[in-house]
Amino acid sequence: MRGLHADTGYLMYRLGLRSGQLFNTFLQESGLRLRHYALLRFLATSEGALQRELSTRLGYDPSAIVGLVDDLEKLGFAERRPSPDDRRSRIVVLTKDGRGFLRDTDEAGLRVTNELLGPLDATERETLHTLLQRIAEDGLT
Question: What pLDDT, in 10s, does the model give residues 76-97?
């Protein structure tokens, strides 16, 4: 019988948990969690998104998106605006304060990643990132 650490899926799961713990610790002072941070990072790469699109792209339950956006609106990091394509729909956009928060947390986010990937050299990190992107593009889109 194979040992637990021989299972790649399990290792990815455990590393995901560890990554989440590290990010949540670093975000603790702000009152945000990794889910908020992921939503902000996604919005930083778009002109805004419908909540259902955020749910699909981030893999979060639609009801969770509502709460996350509510939290980010209270902090002034995101806001809901009428969709230019359909006035009945609302898009979520990153605010100036949200962009500032992301800029302020860039270095801390890199420190978290560096702690998690500490055993790997630069080439190994790049290879891992490339492989994870390939998996994510195929399986998470």
Answer: 999 999 988 887 888 999 999 9
User: The dihedral of CA 73, 94, 115, 19: what is its sign?
Assistant: positive
13: its two tokens: 């799961």
- Is residue 77 within 8 Å of residue 101, measured between CB atoms? yes
Task: Specify the residue for token string 């605010």.
Answer: 95
Q: Residue 71's pLDDT is what? A: 95
Q: What are the DSSP calls for 33-63, one per residue?
A: -HHHHHHHHHHTTSS-EEHHHHHHHHT--HH
Beta carbons of 96 and 104 less than 8 angstroms apart: no
